[in-house]
Amino acid sequence: MQLFGNKKHLNTDVSSQVADAAKGDRRAQKAIFDSLSGKMFAVCLRYMGDRDSAEDVLQDGFVTLFSKLDTYTGEGSFEGWARKIFVNTALMSLRRKDILRQSEDVNAAWNVRADDPSPTQQIGYGELLSMISTLPPGFRTVFNMYVIEGYNHKEIGEALGITENTSRSQLQRARTMLQNKIKEKY
After folding, report:
1. CATH assignment of 106-185, given 3.40.350.10, 2.40.10.120, 1.20.1250.20, 1.10.10.10?
2. 149: burial class by Cβ within 10 Å (0-12, 13-18, 19+)?
3. Per-residue pLDDT tens for 57-113?
4. Three-state DSSP class for 181?
């Protein structure tokens, strides 16, 4: 049984599962953990870049999720609500590490270009995720937020405490690095 879907409202079973988990019911909490842990680990890994850091963020994310279950209203996808918690937990961890300390404004990055930015059709999803995980943390974070999570540059800037131009620069540099990695491999 899939516990969480993309329905506008939760069905009664899921709603009661969340309510039970919010009251401390260990079986309900385990069901939520089992349903979400794989997907949320993938989110954490995309942001953190290594398994150990991703596992730490996953654990912190579940602590936050279970402590905030009573704030979930039942509107929208529970999984989407949970994903925001895990993204924010990863971003807080990255901010603590000050990953964007050496970021550059977009105006300073105009000379960074790919030699041949033509995309290749030969790369698989797993390989691409692996390449993304090797990006420097600031590039990887902005790339994930913009390309995968759908944040705009203003939202990224506010979340990370950087300017919109810095966000654009980080995204452009991440894309360039990925294009060069793909080009080298193929």
Report:
1. 1.10.10.10
2. middle
3. 999 999 999 999 999 988 888 999 999 999 999 999 988 876 655 454 444 444 444
4. helix
- Compute the distance between CA of residue 166 and CA of residue 154 in angstroms, rounded to an integer: 10
Question: Residue 181: pLDDT band by 50, 70, 90 thresholds?
Answer: confident
Buried b (16+ CB within 10 A) or exposed e, 11-25: eeebeebbbbbbeee
**Domains 12-96 and 106-185 belong to one CATH topology:** no
23: CB partners within 8 A, 6+ apart: none
CATH of domain 12-96: 1.10.1740.10
Query: pTM, whole model, 2 decimals?
Result: 0.65
Q: Say if residues 120 and 178 touch (Cβ distance below 8 Å).
A: no
